[in-house]
Prior knowledge:
The chain is an alpha+beta fold. It has two domains: 7-96, lambda repressor-like DNA-binding domains (434 Repressor (Amino-terminal Domain), Orthogonal Bundle), CATH 1.10.260; 112-261, Beta-Lactamase, CATH 3.30.450. 46% of the residues lie in helices and 13% in strands. It is built from twelve helices and five strands. Strands 2-1-5-4-3 form a five-stranded antiparallel beta sheet. Residues 32-89 form the HTH cro/C1-type domain.
Amino acid sequence: MTPPDTTGQTRAALGAFLRAHREQMDPKAFGITDLRRRRTPGLRREEVAQIAGLSATWYSWIEQGREVSLSAAALARLAGALGLTPAERAYVFDLAGRHDPEPPPEEAAPPPALARLVRDLPHPAYLVDRHWNALAWNVSAAALFRGWLDQPGDRNLLRFIFLSPHAPRLIPHFDDRAGRVLAELRADYSRRFADPALAALIAELAAGSPLFARLWNSQAVLGREGGRRAFSDPAGAEHHYDQLTLVPLPDAGARLVVLMPAD
């Protein structure tokens, strides 16, 4: 069966969203004081277009749900003109099917309640941001991930896997597991082409790890997924876990990983 074409619905949803936010804007905030002849609240279409540096006709067509070409740069200017929050901005780019050229700022720290949840979990658990930096972890995770979470220093999971000598000793069947991690990274990268920090990290790893460079060129793609995981203790014995990956902070790209001892 051919899937239904929803492009008209998404264009209509985008137009309705932009119109609602335009009508909520205060003209006085933009130096417009003569409001006597206004029949609708908020700014006029041509005023928003002017603030965003866009064609008034082009902007009107967007609100009307008509088929127009939407560049990422134009959407970024429009989002700035409307003063959209990060979540609202992401919604606009999702509807338009475009990558945001200005990714939202990285979370400096997770919300206190989320960090406390991670610390209190009975099994190894850690929270990573969109660049795979550890934001929070518990004692069990620090004990398991020797060389990554158990000592001061860089807490980037990708650097640990591909640049640290501890990783191959911790992770059985290392090359295979590293390949799956890198395929998950490529899936992340497809959504963040414009993220300079992620691009710099990939370049650093490709230069520093022949394994990373070879696997990256293989073009494999995987979604972030759970499943059975194995880790070796200092004596060489393997311990098996079932991995559960959750997304508690979608806008920040953060992921919570919990490792439950396998039955």
